[in-house]
What does this fold into?
Amino acid sequence: MKSRRRRVILEIIASKRISTQEELRDELIRAGYKITQATVSRDIKDLQLVKVPDPHGYHYALPDQPVVNYSQNRLQRVFQDSVVRVDYSENIIVVKTLPGAAQPVASVLDAWGKPEILGSVGGDDTVMVVVKPKEAVNDIMEEILALL
It folds into this structure.
């Protein structure tokens, strides 16, 4: 039970921005675990989770997880130098770039710290960005277009 719960904790912090023990406890309860704050605290200690900075404060992460902080200016510079156009379908945003620029754009998108962005995949001149929930696509599109 403990190892399964801890795997779920790792899945939660990998997929969502969790900044407090209470948020983590709430997510575990939603996942079907009856858990106390003391148990959450022990799990965090035993998993050696750390709090890392992000644009919105701090969130839990694995200690060996690389933390890349891009400033808003760097993000904007990369976008203005590389992005040709942006469009979307359902919950996927497609970012067209100059040839060879998709992977750096995907990297700054992943490091952007938007919890709605599950991740991105960069090819040569195209980045696919997966957004969850689907309703957040318009907001993320507006923010991306504002960077241009």
The chain has a mean pLDDT of 89.
